[in-house]
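User: Predict DNA-binding transcriptional LysR family regulator's structure from this.
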Amino acid sequence: MTTLDIDAVKTFVTIAELRSFTRAADALGTTQGAISVKLKRLERQVGHRLIERTPRLVRLSAQGAEFLAPARELLAAHDRAVAGLSSARRRFSLGIATHVGAPELPTLLARLNAHDPMLTIEVRLDDARDLLDTFDRGMIDAVIIFRDDDRRDGVVLGPDHFGWFATPDFLHRDGEPFRLAASSPACGILNTATRALDAAALPWTETFLGCGAFAVADAVSAGLAISVFSRRVAPPGTIEVTEKFGLPALPPSEIMLLSTLSDTRSRAALKTLASAFREHHRPPASAGSIAENTRTVAVAVGS
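Assistant:
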């Protein structure tokens, strides 16, 4: 069975329609030599001369005239197949760790939609460990998390800075252990923070254990305890109390984008995502906000 070269078929149809190798080369953005090579290859494949060329005339041979209509149909079918692939709606699932937060989420969604309106974007906010488990099982396309010592295969989106936060009226008496709110299991950020407390010989106790970062944020906002947050996403109504209570300064971390997607369309979406995040990222402020009612969000963009 003979397999035809689409580029060669397109070259033949262009020559046949323009009746000129020079004009065909210009239309295809190539040279006369290149289209001559493609035409000869096609003629070898079909076993017939398709174009008769003299110094003063370019015309179809009898076989070329017979082949022209099927050649056009082949090109049209090829174009429909390519258009169908490029316009098909595709699902893109993105996980964002709750400790990273999502103040950038509206910007990310808007940029992804502008880049590819045929993406159905699913956004999930969850604890980093659960997201990584889902990601490693191939159930989510990409995740945004803080850098982990065991995960160095991602793209760095930018730095992040942390502080101790509590409500303005939170009461702590000298000599008493600091009352901490933590997720269960405790996140890596808080583990780093408690090690800093131990190194500074400051006593602490876990007053509140919640399932996930949102529960911890609620506990801190309610005045039950203090905890560690990125300065970008500190709970509403809280203030940083690092200096007020003489708490240890915390080291910065890096925000990472992890994905194993390799097809061209997905890689372009990931590049857009990283660019939008970096453009939105701002130097740390004294307080931020955690987006409410966005624990799991599924957004069909462009539908």
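The chain is about 40% helix and 25% strand.
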